[in-house]
Amino acid sequence: MYGYAGKILHLDMSSRKSAVILTEHYRSWGGGHGMGSALFWDFCKDKTITDGRSPANVVCIMTSPLCGTIVPSAGGRCEVVGVGVGLHPVSWFTRSNFGGRFSTTLKYAGWDGIVVTGKADHPLWIDIRNDEVSFRDARSLWGKDTWTTQQEIWREVGAEQGTKKAWREIRKHFDEGQTADKPAVLAIGPAGESLSCHGCLIHDAGNGAGQGGFGAVWGAKNLKAISVTGTGLFSVADPAALLQARFATKEKYATHTENPDLRAWSFLAKPFRPVLFSAPPTKNRRPQACQGCITGCRARYGVGYGNESSCQETSWYLSHVRRVFKTPAEITEVNLKAADIVQKYGFNSYPVMAGLHWLEHLHEEGILGDGRAIPSSLPWEELGTLDFAEKFIHALATRTDIGADLADGWLQAALKWGREEDLRTGAMHFPYWGSPEHGYDPRAELEWGYGTIVGDRDLNSHCFNQIFWDVNIHFAFGMPMRLDAREMVETVAAKLSPYIKDRPEALDFGNANMYSEAVAQLVRWQLHYCRFWKQSALFCDLRWPNLYNSNTPDFSGATASADAGEQVFWNAVTGDRLSFEQGIELGRRIWNLDNAIWVLQGRHRDMVRFAPYIYENRFTKGEILPFYFWPCRDKDGTWRYADVMGRAIDFDKFEEWKTIFYRLEGWDTKTGWPLRNTLEKMELDHVADALEAVGKLGGKPHE
Amino acid sequence: MSQTHLKPSASWEESRMNNILAPPSPNLARKLLATVPYRERLTACRLMEPVGVLQDSIRSLREAYLYLLPDARTLPAVHLPSLAEWVGEVLGDVELEEELQRIFCEAKSYVEACIHSCEQIEARILQARAVVGGVI
Amino acid sequence: MDEARESPTGEITRRRFLMGAGGFALVAAVGGAFILPGKMLVMADAEGFLLVDLKKCQGCGSCKMACALAHWGVASYTLSRVQIQQDSFQNWPNDVFMAVCRQCKDAPCVQVCPVSANRPDPKNGNVRIIDTHRCIGCRQCIEACPYTPKRLQWDPMSRKAQKCDLCRDTPYLGEKGGPGGTQACVKVCPVGAFKFSREMPDQKVEDSYQVNLRGPAWAKLGMSVE
Q: Is residue C166 within a helix (H) or strand (E), and if so which, with residue range?
């Protein structure tokens, strides 16, 4: 099997035994999420669990055929699946994803993925050196932060710190494998150890599988870390085709190194800059990338902090820091040091960004604090200082102070504290599944909100979101649009095969179209595209799909193209003859398996609802954003970029939209449960049987 | 606002010269330099592509000034008419409110409006300081 | 040599060759090198070199993967002839080291090869290559490389050594390699941290292959060009 290592590693924590699963049994799922869902289905004996900390939970850490190759911005991603922690009302079977060099090294060690079952009786770490797997005592590592843990494991495995180091034998003899690289270690910190929903998985300085609470899942299994050293290889079906497609991507679609277009449209065409809210702390830095990435989005600096942190973790504290510190240098330093804190604690800072505003609100209103209704001894008057950040994260990571209540989820804490009203007023911006709003309000950016609520967690897929950025930044600066609204939607719609190819109306988020069949098809396209191409083939979310691209004369992006489309890379590596559309169809199959798991966990369409404020309050200007431009049609059909703020989601109309969506998916419109016919067409008969056995197959009489 | 901004226009410079506000009273000056209670804050956010939308808020004129200061990395995202209204209703500075409304209407782009609002707020803070002392 | 010739099977075993190599006293032409009495090897200078910018590399490993792909048609780190070492917990610029073969003047790895498998290739700019058909897997070339990490690699499957040939022998590259052609690492690098040069860097200076490839575009992106 080209592109595959051929084996999947099963780690049973209870018995401390490992076993080999042949990848070929799961080959039809592609890799990554698809394989992970299929493995979960087979290995999880109780799919009714709704808390990932249950010993019955199964967590899969999966690579793809593209991992360990030069497929642009796909070679270094890794997918994690299992039942999550901290969502509301149910912690669904969910996913997360991280980059770096873990998946690459795992492939070179001879493994396509890892399935973890059971629970150890004391903390363990796993030492993988090619096909040799050892369960090792982690009691001395328990309590240590993620960076210390990794470096101690490096020492244990025989890797020196620093660079310019000699090759080392991974066992005793050079014929058993030599490497010049450090082991790739994935670890939890104190947050995961305490089983807090904020626990995440950290690899190297700044790669994190944040959402889903997988740190707590590992903590519950007494799994502190997995270390991988890999010195092997795997075959690629058509190496020349792979190299040539990569060269074509660099030359045609990606940023031009010597002449970067600083205002390029599309994420693939952007220059390599660290994705930070604050200015980089120094010019003395390099871009830093996941393995195989064509445009790094992080950095390592000369100043000794902020290394590899990017995106949200570099901004969770920023708005508070800005109140306390005056100079840009101070603000950047504290902000990035706050990022280092969450990396070390193995702490998913995402809920904290919106959550800290809510806590500030409770404190300012006299509800939260020393001797108040919600007792907290944290120094709230020092909010914005580095000292407060450390104490706050420590409390939440160790279940002390308010961390004890927040460890099981933010909505759970709100309900415990009697703050349900905050979900009506919008003081608590947690619109879906107990997850914080991502900045792209469901009332404005429909595909993000709709896609999230029919799924399992904050969608965090930027397929169409790049339109928001390109259009709104250009509007703000008064710069001419590089594509007018009609050109934009037509260019993008040309890529949306098979559901809505050349149907630009799917991108119309105006009031008249927001509950339409076309928008339902757009949401389906995104979900199915992501389930396969992003989450199974593991193309990076911040680079793919490339729907439009200002580096090409006609603005046509790399997605589905004949020279550098996703399917070109997949086929070059695997030897398949998969079309772009067949990839989407495979994504639909994976999505359906996920939905079946959610149904077994208790999903019903009546649960698929936003928080009340999304229905009851308009998304008003000044609530957060001043404008939100998106392609829309006028009454006469003319396309323009229009401001889609100022509206709420109509409850009844959204229910009708859900019916359209379920019908298109082949699911029971009353329950949202899949129909047998739908599953059987995708060769998921056994899934239909399992649902029928518990009375949860769509189209049947039910409670 | 149109979508064709590049630089501040000459007419803006002229109109600015003609629109220096009268010095605030000591009472108003003190209010302009104070921080308002949390519940009277103005919500806003910052944009950084493609990092996202960072929720934020403004609780004083000084914070508004710092918020609107040009920043190479991020864009302040505040509804400028709401900012003007907040200055009038919460801080009680009707003159500044009118001036900010005028800037919003006349600016050729959102960013130009932010820059000019920032300059106007800076000038107002300096006026307040001249009346009652204090630093930005 | 006598022992090797005396082999009843006619094969030259690795052990016998190693033993016999010590008595080699003839003048022989081996590729672009001449072996003089007293085991001195005189070789022409290489006409192509890889230069690197350690401060520019983004650590994506694309060069490593492209190298193994172009030469062997497989995905691998250890079979890459360029090695990028990273330590995530070090600060710039000490967090990355790019280890490339220097195509040394009077290359020690060529000097020690007992079977002249490691030799300059006069048809390709005297780039130092290892003829895998001749290599007997003695590892002397790897040990002779004076740099850390060693710039030659051990292939445990074929039990032979390999080294950078500037992409001379790249059946999977899809275009002409070698000096005058494409080097996979140079072409694939997203940030331009490699440069092919015809000019031999100062052999007496260890970091002479480390150059500054950061131009105005780099400065425009807010990064140091010093």
A: none
Q: Where are the domains of chain C?
A: 47-213
Judge whether residue A462 has pLDDT over 70. yes
Position A116, amino acid: V
Give the pair of three-digit tokens for residue A641: 């970029």
Looking at the complex, does the CB of residue A303 fall below 8 Å from at least one CB of chain B? Answer: no
Best mutation site among B2, B3, B61, B78 for testing chain A: the one with the most A CBs within 10 Å?
Answer: B3
The verdict on whether omega for the bond into residue A89 sits within 30 degrees of 0, i.e. cis, is yes
| pLDDT surpasses 50 at A239 | yes
CB pairs under 8 A between A and C: 228
Chain A CB contacts of C153 under 8 Å are 178
What tokens does B107 get? 């600016």
State residue A227 phi and psi, 5-degree precision.
-110, 135
How far is the CA of C11 from the CAs of A248, A268, C24, C130, in angstroms?
48, 56, 18, 20
Secondary-structure percent of chain A, ordered helix, strand, coil, rounded to 5: 40, 15, 50
Number of separate helices (H) and strands (E) present in chain B? 6, 3
Tokens at residue A541, please? Answer: 């979310």
- Contact (CB<8Å) B53/A312: no
CA dihedral of B33, B38, B42, B44, whole degrees rounded to 10: 110
Lowest mean pLDDT among A13-17, A77-81, A475-479: A475-479
C-alpha A76/C-alpha A21 separation (Å) is: 22
Percent of chain C's residues with pLDDT above 90: 81
Q: Which residues of B touch A315 (CB under 8 A)?
A: 48, 51-52, 54
**% residues pLDDT > 70 (chain A):** 99
On whether the CB atoms of residues C75 and A107 are closer than 8 A, the answer is: yes
Chain A closest CA to B54's CA: distance in Å? 7
The per-residue pLDDT for range A495-546, each reduced to its tens digit, is 999 999 999 999 999 999 999 999 999 999 999 999 999 999 999 999 999 9
**Which residues sit opposite C21 in a β-bridge?**
none
Residue of C nearest to A235 (CA): C74
**Is the pLDDT score of C28 beyond 70?**
no
Tell me what pLDDT residue B50 has: 78
- Report CA-CA distances (Å) from C2 to C112, C140, C192: 20, 22, 52
Of C31 and A172, the structure prediction assigns the larger pLDDT to: A172
Q: What is the 3-state secondary structure (H, E, C) of C36-81?
A: ECCCEEEECCCCCEEEECCCCCCCCCHHHHHHHHHHHCEEECCCCC
Distance between B31 CA and the closest CA of chain A, angstroms: 18
* Structural domains for chain A: 7-229 (3.60.9.10), 271-425 (1.10.569.10), 446-592+608-665 (no CATH)
pLDDT of residue A701: 56
Question: Which residue from A202, A97, A197, A103 is spatially nearest to A144, judged by alpha carbons?
Answer: A202
Which residues fall within 8 angstroms of residue A21, CB to CB, at 6 or more apart?
A7, A8, A9, A10, A39, A115
Residues A628, A445 contacting (CB under 8 angstroms): yes
Neighbours of chain B (3+ CB pairs under 8 A): A
Question: From 3.40.50.720, 3.30.70.20, 3.40.50.300, 3.10.20.310, which CATH number describes the C47-213 domain?
Answer: 3.30.70.20
